[in-house]
Amino acid sequence: xxxxxxxxxxxxxxxxxxxxxxxxxxxxxxxxxxxxxxxxxxxxxxxxxxxxxxxxxxxxxxxxxxxxxxxxxxxxxxxxxxxxxxxxxxxxxxxxxxxxxxx
Length: 103
Known about the structure:
The chain is of the alpha+beta class. It has one domain. It has helices spanning 6-24, 85-102, and strands at 39-43, 48-55, 58-65, 75-81. A 4-stranded antiparallel β-sheet has the order 1-2-3-4, sandwiched between helices. It is globular, with a radius of gyration of 14 Å.
């Protein structure tokens, strides 16, 4: 985000707020098939989800978990601008390890 001009940065932050608010309200639908969906399950055992946002041709990703022992908690694990398939998988693996450490 630091590379964005101030106006673009504020717009992105607003879109991130909207995405998180929709997530909190349960307004996002899970889909592993539709790349346009805003939330996607990316790992099982433990379950990790990806919140997705496209901004200025950049794919912004937020990895989180929803621990069953604390149902009101949305545990943020990792965030990044998707750089490529291999780097994205490494970020997913890191997020899963962070969550396993929490459990």
